[in-house]
Give the backbone structure.
Amino acid sequence: MKTAEWKRAARPVLPTDGNWEFRGPLSYRLPVHRVLFGVLGEGSGFDKGTYIWRVVMPLFVPAEDVVLSWSVRIGGGARKFGNFSKDDLAAAIAEAAGGLPVSDEEALGEMVSRGFQAGPNRRVHEVVGYAQVLLGNVAAAEESLARAKAGTARTPWEEQIIERAELISRALDEGGRDQAVGQLDTWCSQTVAALGLRRLVAKVRTISCVNFRSPPAFPVPAAAAARQSGRTTRAGRRPSPPGSAVPSGDEDGPNLPLAPG
Amino acid sequence: MYGTAVHSEFAAEINALSDSDLSTEVSYKDGEVVPYGTRGSVRLDVVEGDLQEPQAAYDLETGTATLTPARIAQIQANLPPGYRDIPIIEIRP
């Protein structure tokens, strides 16, 4: 699914009580802290159907790609949407967004509970260990990190998991939880940058303009009216000076009425 | 394309089974599940079990294509740690 198609499908059905940002086929909720929450449309190689993912991605493990290991497909692992009806696609996107955890803490708690019975996947134990650190459960974190480090690495990326887990274990031993959290936050920032994500909601700029829509008390010549309104009499608009907080007409400020010419 | 049509029909049949233990078109990279098209990832036609703890993988082959040792090695290198030795099964229509 192309980005424009995804935006057209997702934008109308995402909850209006949140701020959403788009990045390719991913819509994610702002602000972004330590866990990414979103909805992703994953195309099929076989037809025009789309898998809809409820995205929950721990950002405190360094990553250069969107990772879906902690996410779920809506409708089950084999269910695609949009092949025959756009309505089912919209419903799936709404369902995915509506079921997202409301906070990092809730998501971290779910990771810990999912990882509780996890098998030998050291990636799971790494995430669970860091989640325990962030939740303040240091003893449980050390147990999970010991599992993440256990055994022999068979690939370079497994060696990196072990190195990271050792670094966090050392931080807990030597500098305490704060030092470990500081390292995890550094990795969060790296992942956010690598994925090109925004973290915060854009500030809405407000300008103070009292009675800007009130008509003048007396008829005034067009040139004078233009001076009062701060605009030229031509259709073109006067640009804001560099560094000025006053928006030009091209920005999102109120559209000041021009005097009749 | 015959191969694509076969894969599409196969995916539809898997979906019709409504078996929550089966997932179609799952991509892995370095032991993580990633979106389709992620550079360096491998795409599996069907995965059985939890995606972080897969129990088997199925590759649908059509025509003269076969599941080669190189392809198996590529799949294994990207499966989650601890699950590299799961059965990787070639299936044919």
